[in-house]
């Protein structure tokens, strides 16, 4: 009987360990799903992270992470690189934060249409901050300056320092979801999008440039291509689905669906598939963290964080922190204005999210 209890305890610990590994992979998948960037970081990170030599080195001299008030904050950018998508505009702007002492992780979504003042003068949507700084007078692109400008702008909006940045892409999006065998997504409302750009048709007759997307209300299985279109659609004509924050919420649905699929027992018991997913991710991510810092962050996430309890904040009108500005005051553009004309209320909400 005693041996049976020990076996049961071992099985429980094994399932918990597998689940934790799945949560970490899910967290990295989350990063890869939230942008439209370019293939950047190469190498087999899985081997580097968990090799015996690496493990011993970390025991002797563990890497310290940059942090403020016990939290590590990272900017997550996705660049829209479709030919007709606004090449240098940031398609998605997120901030991820986790506590060194084991508090809940947090994810903050910043709408691309948030109106801001740029350090170089002038005003515009926050999603153009990267482009304004990245494009040089000679026409060349300085990615580093673009990321730094976006980072400073987001720090100003949220009132917190950002220690790291990550640029991620949709290049592996369809492949990852298809590797999972598709995902289950519950669509909140039926909607149509008659203006979804068709890749490679930018110079075709107008009638051929766009695809009609239709999504029915209800839970349904989506393959990679379908999920990609669902999460990126921005011209829906029913129920407010054409807004930026509706798109952000759809992306969150897809992320949660991917997480649920990753945590399914069938996937966790298939090490080959987990490693395949992990290696797909390492080919679509660029970051300013060193390998040692990445190792340390993953170790902390593994040991202390419950990634099933991620606190979220979206700076859309529903949060009461922003409101839709009058188009006539902004050249006819759809924009979001911070409450009170400044970021004080946002700063307060962010600190409450992270520290209370």
Automatic annotation (TrEMBL):
Keywords: Membrane, Transmembrane, Transmembrane helix. The keyword Ligase does not apply. InterPro entries: LytR/CpsA/Psr_CW_biosynth (IPR050922), LytR_CpsA_psr (IPR004474). It comes from the Bacteria. Residues 89-263 form the Cell envelope-related transcriptional attenuator domain. The chain crosses the membrane at residues 21-41. Belongs to the LytR/CpsA/Psr (LCP) family. This is Cell envelope-related transcriptional attenuator domain-containing protein.
């Amino acid at each position: 009987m005693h041996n049976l209890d020990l076996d049961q305890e071992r099985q429980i610990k094994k399932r918990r360990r597998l689940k934790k590994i799945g949560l970490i992979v899910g967290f990295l998948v989350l990063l890869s799903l939230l942008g439209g960037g370019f293939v950047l970081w190469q190498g087999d990170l899985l081997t580097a992270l968990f090799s015996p030599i690496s493990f011993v080195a970390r025991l002797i001299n563990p890497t310290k992470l940059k942090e403020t008030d016990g939290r590590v904050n990272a900017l997550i950018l996705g660049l829209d690189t479709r030919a007709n998508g606004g090449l240098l505009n940031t398609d998605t702007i997120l901030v991820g934060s986790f506590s060194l002492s084991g508090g809940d992780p947090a994810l903050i979504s910043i709408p691309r249409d948030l109106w801001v003042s740029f350090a170089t003068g002038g005003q515009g949507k926050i999603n153009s901050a990267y482009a304004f700084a990245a494009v040089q007078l000679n026409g060349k692109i300085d990615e580093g300056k673009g990321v730094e400008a976006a980072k400073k702008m987001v720090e100003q909006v949220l009132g917190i320092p950002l220690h790291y940045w990550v640029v991620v892409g949709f290049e592996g999006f369809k492949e990852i979801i298809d590797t999972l065998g598709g995902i289950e997504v519950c669509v909140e409302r039926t909607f149509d999008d008659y203006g979804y750009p068709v890749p490679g048709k930018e110079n075709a007759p107008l009638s051929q440039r766009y695809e009609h997307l239709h999504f029915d209300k209800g839970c349904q299985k989506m393959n990679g291509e379908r999920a990609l279109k669902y999460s990126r659609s921005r011209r829906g004509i029913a129920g407010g689905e054409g807004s930026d924050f509706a798109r952000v919420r759809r992306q969150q649905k897809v992320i949660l669906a991917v997480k649920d699929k990753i945590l399914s027992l069938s996937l966790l018991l298939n090490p080959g598939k987990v490693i395949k997913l992990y290696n797909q991710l390492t080919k679509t991510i660029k970051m300013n963290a060193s390998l040692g810092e990445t190792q340390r962050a993953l170790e902390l996430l593994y040991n202390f964080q419950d990634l099933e309890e991620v606190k979220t904040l979206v700076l859309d009108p529903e949060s009461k922190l922003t409101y839709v500005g009058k188009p006539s005051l902004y050249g006819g553009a759809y924009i979001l204005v911070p409450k009170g004309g400044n970021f004080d209320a946002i700063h307060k909400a962010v600190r409450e999210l992270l520290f209370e």
